[in-house]
Amino acid sequence: MADAGAQFYDNPEVFATYLERRGQPTSANDTLELPIIRLLLPELKDLSILDLGCGDAALAPELIKAGAHQYFGIDGSDKMIELASGKPLDSRIRISHGFIENPELYQPNTYDLVLSRLAFHYIESLEVLFERIYQTLRPGGYLVFSAEHPVITSNQLSIKQGSNRQDWVVDRYFMTGKRQFKWMGGEVIKYHHTLEDYFQALSKQGFVVEELRESRPDPKRFKDRKLLERRSRVPLYLFMKARKV
Ligand SMILES: C[S@@+](CC[C@H](N)C(=O)[O-])C[C@H]1O[C@@H](n2cnc3c(N)ncnc32)[C@H](O)[C@@H]1O
Does ligand 1 have an atom closer than 6 angstroms to the CB of 80? Predict the structure, then answer.
């Protein structure tokens, strides 16, 4: 049986594989995802931040050091919360077990920045999610997120070829919704949304999309030319920065 996003990471085999992959200095997260997230973050001074699907909340100390007023991270995986809470935390950092779908998280006019890294492709309804995020942001506040790129979530034919796949297949692109993937030793449910879906769901709420990125690799971050070539073939991640006006 396939697991929903958060439960998936509580599978011991999945969690071990995830930590092993994230620990590698050449991981796609460190070479592609994190640098673009850093680029998209607004000036952090005095901001109240909500991080949805925060994982081990590794970025929290950096955000506080850059001047953020407070950081609240939630994640639905017990193992992730255990990992995040196991580190010494600044009193301005709060981490809690919780689900992105929980409407109670989104108290009106509470945060200046809602951040989410690689969790929105586990969420079925972008419209409901973005409506809640819009509500919880103060006017002028930002939503910055990364998600698996729609060319990757469109189907599982590529992933079936294993981690060293040589071709990527984009298929059923406009047939959006639930997908099941065998991945990292488990089976997970993701939700495929098109690029247009992300944009339209943001615009519908009144967000102004200020930035859109697609994990274009920066050659300076790659010593290994072969890896750079591989990362230049398809976009792994989608990023957006949107402002509540
Ligand atoms: C790929 S990990 C990314 C973790 C972290 N944001 C990072 O980039 O280091 C995805 C995270 O989203 C969490 N997640 C997935 N679906 C969720 C949901 N519906 N509610 C809360 N957390 C969820 C998972 O538990 C997992 O920690």
Answer: yes
Let me know if residue 169 belongs to a domain: no
Distance CA 230, CA 155 (A): 20
Pairing of strands 70-75, 48-52: parallel
State the closest ligand 1 atom to the C-alpha of 122, by its place in the atom list counted from 1. Answer: 16
Q: For residue 204, what are the domain limits?
A: 5-151+194-244
pLDDT at 87: 82
Q: CA-to-CA distance for 245 and 242, rounded, in angstroms?
A: 9
**Residue 92 pLDDT:** 97
For 68-104, write each residue's pLDDT tens digit. Answer: 999 999 999 999 999 999 888 899 999 999 999 999 9
Residue listed under structure tokens 């929980």: 102
* Alpha carbon distance 121, 124 (integer Å): 8
For residue 232, the domain's CATH number is 3.40.50.150
